[in-house]
Amino acid sequence: MRKRNVVGMLGAAGIATTLSFMLMDKSKRERLMNKWNEWKVSMQTDQSNLPIEEAGDPGRDNLQNADMVAEGSQFGVNYYNRVKQ
After folding, report:
1. How far apart are CA 3 and CA 26, in angstroms?
2. Residue 32 in contact with residue 42, Cβ under 8 Å?
3. CB contact set of 55 (below 8 Å; sequence gap of 6+)
4. How many Å apart are CA 66 and CA 59, to the nearest integer?
5. So where does this one cross the membrane (predicted)?
6. Structural domain boundaries in the chain
7. What share of the chain is helix, strand, coil (3-state, %, to 5)?
8. In angstroms, how far apart are the furthest CA atoms of the chain?
9. What value, to the nearest 5°, has the Cα angle with vertex 47 and ends 42 and 51?
10. What pTM was computed for the model?
11. What pLDDT, on a 0 to 100 scale, did the predictor assign at position 72?
């Protein structure tokens, strides 16, 4: 076998062993789940501060977006229409 495969298998076995020891104790399991949930919440985007209005009118202040629309890109306009409906 290649060294790369052996190292990958050893790494996976080490991770599995570490997780099994961590999940055996209920307090550690709860702490791990709390950290996981905190991470998930932090990764979710807050859509209230997205530039939706800027996407709907590409020529107002954003010249790069207007150039892309002029070349045929309709992603921003379509996204604006989908969100506003």
Report:
1. 37
2. no
3. 65, 76, 77, 79, 80
4. 5
5. 6-24
6. 3-41, 50-84
7. 80, 0, 20
8. 60
9. 130
10. 0.36
11. 66
* pLDDT tens digits, 5-52: 888 899 999 999 988 887 888 888 888 889 989 988 887 766 666 666
Can you give the pLDDT at residue 61? 65
Structural contact between residues 77 and 55, judged by C-beta atoms closer than 8 angstroms? yes
Structure token digits, residue 15: 């991770």
Residue with tokens 């202040």: 61
Handedness of CA 19, 24, 28, 34 (dihedral sign): positive
For tokens 């985007």, the residue is 45
